[in-house]
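Tutorial, part two.
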Amino acid sequence: MGKALSEWVSKFLAVVRYEILWNIRKRKFLGMLIVAFALTTLSLAGGHIRSAITGDPVEPNPNFLIDSNVGLGGFGFFLFAIVTVMNTISGEFESGTIVSLLAKPVSRTTIFFGKLFAAFLTLLATYCFLIVYMTIGGSVVYGPQSNLHLVPLSLIGALFSTLVWVSIVLLLGSTSKSSLIAALGALGIWLGTNIIGSILGVLAGQGWILTYIPGSGNTGSIGGPPQVGTPITTGTDSIGPNLINYILHPSWNVTYYKINIGGSTPSQVFWEELYSEPLSAVISTSIVIALIYTIAFLVTSWYFFRRAQVAE
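Running the prediction step on this input gives:
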């Protein structure tokens, strides 16, 4: 038993090393760091950009780091998921290297989860770099940052949020064996959930549907209607910030609204309150949804990879 486990671990680590070296040769990791640096720099510079446009001074913000969602947000998580795994499986079929890879005395299950773990390590390294950069940059631009002990929750939340999109991209790549379809299909899903979600939530008042869809989720508010309250997004992309907010404000309730046009005059626009729920319920729901989608999509991807036919 011990020898068999040792052999499996050696094979698993060999696959991880193979995938990481492949990413380095293709400059994928370097590209991710460059993109991450650019996106977070824009996030850091946002206050100064607004100041240059409006003329208002840049105010100190001790909560910038814990509110920044690693400086990326939902689109950043989606983008890194695509860059990290869009050709992890499909690229092997497209280039023909899958033949030599499967010729090795390594099971397809070991190959699949070794590649997945390598993707996780790549994301972990990237997000650790971002958090260090955001901590230093946030302190320089917005002054000393508070609640730094909660920063690890941002890291955990970012990884969790990204893994949902990773599982979607892997599923599309494993079933289609096409990196292009994996990228475009995931992009279509992301655009659909965000565009249709905004319409359902703000105009139709049916944003609760987004609770069960990966992405930004429904949009609520704390302390009043959206124009005066603190906005909260409830989807899988916001797990990190919502965990931090819950620790800091465990009694918060999230209230959801829809826009109504009419009122006393045809042109009047006002926000109609729909319902409220505790922030704890928002967090638990988003974590459960993220787990369900991630596990279901990864298991399905693994199944299709194990059954895939390889043309010599």
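The chain has one domain: 2-307. In part three we will examine how such features are distributed along the chain.
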